[in-house]
Design a protein that fits this description.
Order of helices and strands: HHHHEHEEHEEHHHHHHEEHHEEEEEH
Structural class: alpha+beta
Number of domains: 1
Number of strands: 12
CATH topology: Beta-lactamase
Radius of gyration: 23 Å
Shape: globular
Helix content: 25-40%
Length: 423
């Protein structure tokens, strides 16, 4: 039998098999439906880990309503000058040291994206589990977008952080927030007994999170987070300004402050004050599951490059994205040098080199790095001294969170890069 005839038979058979396999593939719309249907019905949607969590983090606009943070004007391009030595850096993992590029693509990692800028230029950019144009949720990284808006209002003498919050929001005068200074809300030091809690459904924070649509809502949950916080009566665990205690309720109150002073909802204020002025590639958004109220404490959906543009506002390279500084130099000096180390005195297992927290930034390091993290391995770091911006996103592989965490890797990279550039 001629070889050409056998080759033809083989080709036809191969095409037939490929055609059958293609028919077995789930259409995109059906795949999205199945992902949404697989989310927990009697618990918080984000409690399902693995590939479902990855898909959800990239597709919250498919699962929930969103409110838009608008861009405007020409896109401010980011020059790309890749530093190959970064990807070749050996980083510590559970399996031992591994090249960064190899780690990010490996099963040991759940990295969604990693982006590093130095002096306003992209020096490292990888998207191992997303497309560059996608807008993953950045969770609590959102908090420093909110505090930046407060800082901008402060620089315009529209907010005085030494005043109590009920000066600007009279609705809080009958709540535990009465008399709490804005600076103590910014620094997570209110003394109010409402720490983050996503297990005990009767806890103050859980009830708040349900009311805004982040936690699990049922018919017993409040419908309005503004009303719930305005009547908050859970008492104090400490005097204000004495001790750090992380709570997204503080960020919600700061967002409410921005809304009160500007007269618009938070996402509209973010559009007008920041996103429309940084040459963003795309609109951002907040997911807003209930009545169009953005999840103020952690709901930002944005392209990594655009989040990096926001980060540049805190660096000497701010002029790459905006002609006039949006973040005052006095504010950056305050972040770097005027924190209150005593607030972290009772905190354990702090990373090496942490000086203080301030203005919703989790840590300010001795080398000038400001860090804000998200609960499932998101983060942004900016270094106004050495002119770096780091943006990353990840997720949990399983209930045991068995992956090598991305955030410590980013700390390791930042420390090494800053040391190398300083030598």
């Amino acid at each position: 039998m001629p070889r050409s005839f056998l080759a033809s038979i083989f080709l036809i058979t191969s095409l037939f098999v490929l055609s059958l396999e293609a028919k077995k593939e789930t259409p995109p719309a059906e795949f999205a439906r199945k992902q949404i249907e697989s989310l927990p019905k009697e618990d918080i949607w984000w409690t399902k880990n693995g590939e479902t969590m990855l898909w959800s983090f990239k597709n919250l606009h498919t699962i929930f309503p969103t409110v838009t943070v608008h861009r405007s004007g020409a896109v401010k391009g980011l020059e790309t000058v890749i530093d190959e030595t970064i990807g070749a850096t050996y980083v510590p993992t559970k399996r031992g040291e591994m090249e960064l590029n190899r780690f990010l693509e490996s099963d040991e990692s759940t990295a969604i994206s990693v982006l590093i800028l130095h002096k306003g230029r992209i020096v490292f950019e990888r998207y191992p589990r997303m497309k560059a144009q996608e807008k993953p949720v950045h969770w609590s990284v959102t908090k420093v977008l909110v505090s930046a808006m407060v800082a901008i209002l402060e620089s315009k003498n529209k907010v005085n952080v030494e005043l109590s919050i009920d000066h600007y929001i009279p609705e809080l005068s009958a709540s535990d927030f009465k008399g709490i200074k804005i600076k103590n809300i910014l620094d997570m030091a209110t003394g109010i007994n409402c720490p983050e809690e996503y297990v005990n459904k009767s806890a103050c924070y859980y009830i708040y999170s349900a009311s805004i649509g982040d936690g699990y809502w049922d018919e017993r949950s409040p419908d309005n987070p503004y009303e719930y916080i305005s009547k908050l009566d859970v008492g104090k665990y400490s005097d204000q300004g004495k001790e750090y205690d992380y709570s997204g309720v503080n960020t919600f109150v700061l967002g409410w402050l921005v809304e009160k002073v500007t007269g618009v909802q938070l996402h509209e204020a973010a559009s007008e004050m920041i996103w429309s002025k940084i040459g963003a590639e795309a609109d951002a958004a907040f997911f807003a599951p209930r009545y169009g109220v953005p999840v103020i404490h952690g709901g930002l959906l944005a392209r990594p490059r655009d989040l990096a543009r926001f980060g540049l506002l805190f660096t000497p390279s701010h002029n790459v994205v905006t002609e006039r500084p949006l973040i005052a130099e006095t504010h950056i000096e305050r972040l770097l040098y005027q924190g209150r180390p005593e607030l972290l005195a009772s905190q354990e297992n702090l990373p090496e080199g942490v000086k203080h927290n301030t203005y919703q930034w989790d840590f300010v390091f001795e080398d000038g790095t400001l860090y804000k993290g998200g609960w499932a391995g998101q983060g942004v770091m900016v270094n106004p001294v050495h002119d770096y911006v780091f943006v990353w996103n990840s997720y949990f592989k399983d209930k045991e969170e068995s992956e090598t965490k991305l955030t410590p890797i980013m700390f390791y990279l930042a420390k090494n890069l800053i040391r190398e550039k300083s030598e």
